[in-house]
Amino acid sequence: MKFLVGYDGTESSQRALALACDQAKLTNALIYVVTSMGGGEKENWDEIRKAEEDLQKAKELLLKSQIQCETIQLARGLSPGEDLVKFAEDNSIDVIFMGIRKKSRTRKLLLGSTAQFIILKGPCPVTTTK
Predict the structure, then answer these.
(1) Are 119 and 126 within 8 A, CB to CB?
(2) Considering the entire predicted model, what is its pTM?
(3) CATH code for position 52
(4) Is residue 54 exposed (0-12), middle (13-18) or buried (19+ Cβ within 10 Å)?
(5) Whether the Cβ atoms of residue 35 and residue 87 lie closer than 8 Å to each other
(6) Structural domain range at position 91
(7) Comparing C-alpha atoms, which of 44, 51, 42, 122 is closest to residue 81?
(8) 74-124 pLDDT tens trace
(9) Which of 11, 64, 76, 89 is nearest to 37 (CA)?
(10) What's the pLDDT score for residue 110?
């Protein structure tokens, strides 16, 4: 099996990683820990460095638990939702795990909801944690 964890270092994404880790122990799954960034001028070096550090911490946690894993930092100019759905499609992912945060109705209307996009467009089951 192959799992995808949408990861940005937040508490909710850490909980999603922990849940995926628990499930991977039961199924011997490979976990892809993926961070999506817009790329180009949209990020500064501090954001890129923080994303790399967050991914490294996630990898260390999984390897310590003897879970097969790969960490990937995407910067393809897509929204995070589009990036994760495309990655899931391209890599035949079996389950997507992701953390969610509560947003106001206005914020959802203006910015959209990454989780909602992935749940509706994802090619496989999506498990969310908060």
Answers:
(1) yes
(2) 0.90
(3) 3.40.50.620
(4) buried
(5) no
(6) 2-129
(7) 122
(8) 988 888 999 999 999 999 999 999 998 776 665 555 445 888 899 999 999
(9) 76
(10) 45
